[in-house]
């Protein structure tokens, strides 16, 4: 059964409600279903955010590497991948990925990723982890 836009929105809304409650594992389970049914950049960023908050950066890296292979690979996907690589201790790869995203306009997000690569942190705002749909 193919999902329509309303179905996808309702599922994403349910995942976001779980995420806001701090229920990252249940949110990631919902997002995994959404990703399998209708993969897109927003779902990849949201699911990767949950993985990172669950302390599973390797899962975030695998997901984001697959997501950026599918055009269009947007700036925020590349920044989230740089963040996940840094969380895995792969700082040189993270720096290279952040450089490929340097042409974008999201300066605050680039600054946060740059700090993560250096081993420092600027905590993300909860809504910033998901990005715009």
Main attributes of the structure:
133 residues; mainly alpha; Serine Threonine Protein Phosphatase 5, Tetratricopeptide repeat; 71% helix; 0% strand; globular
Strand content: under 5%
pLDDT < 50 runs, ≥5 residues: none
Let me know the average pLDDT.
82
Reported for the largest beta sheet, the result is: none
CATH topology: Serine Threonine Protein Phosphatase 5, Tetratricopeptide repeat
Q: Compute the number of strand runs.
A: 0
Kindly, what is the distance between the CA atoms of the first and last residues, rounded to a whole number of angstroms? 23 Å
Give the H and E element order.
Answer: HHHHHHHH
The CATH class turns out to be Mainly Alpha
- Let me know the CATH homologous superfamily: Tetratricopeptide repeat domain
Number of domains: 1
| Overall spatial form | globular
Oligomer description: single chain
Radius of gyration: 14 Å
